[in-house]
Amino acid sequence: MVGDSDAVVVRRIAELPDHFYQFLVEAAAEGFDTMSVLQDEWRDGCNRFERPGEILALATIRDEIAGIGGITQDFVDSSWLRMRRFYVRPAYRRRGVGRQIALYVLEHAKTFDRQIALYADGPEAEAFWPTLGFSPIERENTTHVFYRGP
């Protein structure tokens, strides 16, 4: 049985977390560049998740970094938002970490009433996003979209 001490805690962050290198090393070992791109864009200031509608969220379990993800303005159509830089460390997968981050970010995005796009990188991501209401779409640099209802 999972106790309260194993609860996923998600919060908005304004700086990359301590021990970010754990994301870098583990993502690179899996062949994902998303964390190194996040770090590079953060360092050069081109993407700090600060524009209207944007947010970067960190998930922890027992004060250990477990996952990260956010939402930015979409680079294909600036009237849309885009889920970006999602990564859950292998040791924390299948524990609801990615879902909790996504729900936190989607809740933040609600008030902006914009379509939300994403690019699912790999079969696990392609299977995951529809469970949150995203639908496949044929669009440049995009695999799924979340349509806000009326």
From TrEMBL:
Residues 8-150 form the N-acetyltransferase domain. Keywords: Transferase. It holds the Pfam family Acetyltransf_1. The keyword Transferase applies. It comes from the Bacteria. GO terms for molecular function: acyltransferase activity, transferring groups other than amino-acyl groups. This is GNAT family N-acetyltransferase. It comes from Rhizobium leguminosarum.
